[in-house]
Specification:
- By secondary structure, this protein is mainly β.
- The protein has two domains: about 1-50 and about 65-135, UDP N-Acetylglucosamine Acyltransferase, domain 1 (3 Solenoid), CATH 2.160.10.10; about 140-234, UDP N-Acetylglucosamine Acyltransferase, domain 1 (3 Solenoid), CATH 2.160.10.
- The chain is built from no helices and 30 strands.
- The chain has an eleven-stranded mixed β-sheet, with no helix packed on it.
């Protein structure tokens, strides 16, 4: 049950919320039951943390009540962002304005989810990841450490577009360590983007991309190997 708090104008707190004195809370923030907030967290105006699970009548997602939202030390939650119960945000990460983070998703330390981006349920995002504005990170997507995802990227997890046989799992793309995905690219279900690979802007990736390879086009085709000076690993 939500109750008003005098910590900030319009702040509403649920039962069992851990809100340390070092947290900086904006106006009209709502923090639902069981949410755990780390030291030095900044929560900007109008954010909703620990939002209860809400599923459509035909959704096949798990209806088990998730645990409380966890926000690590020093994280920043942008204005109007919505974080669902059961998600976990790592220390020093930034969730941009109006972003949406769903249940059972996990975001590693010092990662960024850009403005208006959506991280769906059961997605796993590593440390030092940079996801830019208006990206869609589908359910069961896996993004390893230090990946760069440019604005408008879309990831998909169902080749049948909602008509897969009952019991067939969703398969999100896998983005290996330090790969880069250019603006407005689309990654089809289950594809793997190899370590240090580079997907060009606007590409549609229909099959796995080998490590340290540049692919471009629709459908994406191998253009060349990346040169040593184009790689980020030492």
């Amino acid at each position: 049950m939500l109750r008003p708090s005098d910590r900030a104008p319009g702040l509403m707190l649920g039962e069992g919320v851990g809100l340390p004195a070092s947290a900086d809370v904006g106006a009209n923030v709502v923090i639902h039951d069981g949410t755990a907030i780390g030291e030095g967290v900044r929560i900007q105006d109008g954010a909703i943390l620990g939002k209860p699970l809400s599923l459509g009548p035909r959704s096949r997602a798990s209806r088990e009540e998730p645990a409380g939202l966890v926000v690590g030390d020093g994280a920043v939650i942008g204005a109007g962002a919505v974080l669902v119960a059961g998600a976990a945000v790592g220390a020093e990460s930034v969730i941009g304005d109006q972003a949406h983070v769903r249940e059972r998703s996990a975001i590693g330390r010092a990662s960024v989810v850009g403005r208006g981006s959506s991280v769906e349920n059961d997605a796993v995002i590593g440390s030092g990841v940079r996801i830019q504005t208006a990206c869609y990170i589908t359910a069961f997507c896996e993004i390893e450490d230090e990946v760069f995802v440019a604005p408008g990227v879309r990831t998909l997890n169902d080749m049948t577009a909602g008509r897969r046989p009952r019991g067939e799992p969703l398969r999100g793309p896998v983005l290996r360590r330090r790969c880069r995905v250019g603006g407005a690219a689309t990654l089809l279900p289950g594809v793997e983007i190899g370590e240090e690979a580079f997907v060009g802007a606007g590409a549609v990736v229909t099959r796995d991309v080998p490590p340290r390879t540049l692919v471009v086009g629709v459908p994406a085709q191998r253009l060349r190997e990346l040169r040593p000076d184009e790689l980020t690993s030492g």
